[in-house]
Amino acid sequence: MRIKNQIEKKYCLKIDNVIKNEASTDGNVYTLFTSDTKYIAKIYDDENHAKSMISIHNDLKSNKMNVSKIILNKNNDGYTLLNNGKYCVIYSFLNGEEIGNLFKDISIDTSIEIAKEIKKFHQITSGDNKYNLKPLPFKIEKKLSRYSVLHFDLTRSNIFYNKKWQSKIGFIDFDDAKYGPTIVDVAVAISLLYFSKSRGIDVNGLKAFLNEYYDNEKIKKEETPYLKECAIKWIEYIMDNNQFDSSTTESLEIRKELIEEEFSNIIS
Description:
3-stranded antiparallel sheet, alpha+beta, 6-stranded antiparallel sheet, Aminoglycoside 3'-phosphotransferase, Chain: A, domain 2, Phosphorylase Kinase, domain 1, 17% strand, 13 strands
């Protein structure tokens, strides 16, 4: 396989097998198997995006967050130019389990852990757009004070759990990351974690998450009145800019309805 040969030439890896991840939306993800370890290879069209992903992972890793490590090539670079003009970044395999596979309902304790780690992620990446990410693709009415990297896709599949980790929570797949008002990522997280077609609204989990995330009363007072607006605008943006199957579309529509009808009552 061409990608196997190119990676082995550029990296200190002896690869036994390469399997393309067919579940990847962009079709750019491969699992690499060595004799004793798995890695994730992602192939990017844009060199700047590859650099952004490397910088984000390096900063989060250096701050002891549970994210994949960037594997350096033989030249100690974080990415490699392939023969087809695309850019390969190899990530260590994060040894956790998707919370969607582990928990039907997210416990209070786990909700608190998730909130702590998302808050830490926002604190580490706060300030100017130092990672050169695309800006938030929609506007919110209120000019807010906190800006940071937005993961922008905090699904149950992208949040990992491992009871052996000190914080128990980790994150994968920052490829949809944006730069913008931090509140948007909070809205994304609660929309995906606590509102659903099958389970309705997890009120206790939602309140535990928000109470932990907004332990600063000044920030809480500034941002929580605009969470509903941000959640609805994110759902509308996602639906307008993706081709989902009917089940996923229905799920997003139900989330939007629940947020429109019930969110204000829950956090009042």
